[in-house]
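Friendly challenge for the regulars: who can give me the structure tokens for this chain first? No prize, just bragging rights.
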Amino acid sequence: MSRRFVLDTNVISDVIKNFEPVVDRLKASFRDGDTLILVPPVDFEIRRGLSYVGAHRQILIYDERLKTELVWEALTDDDWIAASALWVENRRLGKTSSDLDLLIAAQTRRLDASLITSDNDFESLPVTRVNWRLA
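First reply, four minutes later:
Bragging rights claimed.
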């Protein structure tokens, strides 16, 4: 059965750096027919980070090899509204998340997908997380 995954920024970075465990999981996911999704906040974070350090070769790898294989899902007005509601919920619980993480979480929920990530930034957000760095 095909699954739907939104890839977080750290996963894209791992693939660009050719981190073998994550690359292997990505290849397996493609073979399994999973839908691998790229969202605008992740694209922004990747471009911002790579541009800042002048990593032009990595930007080329990202644009020509990886991004073309992923399904692009644009943000909707509903994603912005859901992200603001998540901000309010977290704030009331005394927790904070970056605006980009809130948008990623909102979009992941709307797409009925799981988020592939290797950090804890989404710990307080209501999304299913999968860590491809773990065996």
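DSSP finds six helices and five strands in the chain. Strands lie at 4-7, 35-38, 71-72, 114-116, 129-130. Your move, everyone else.
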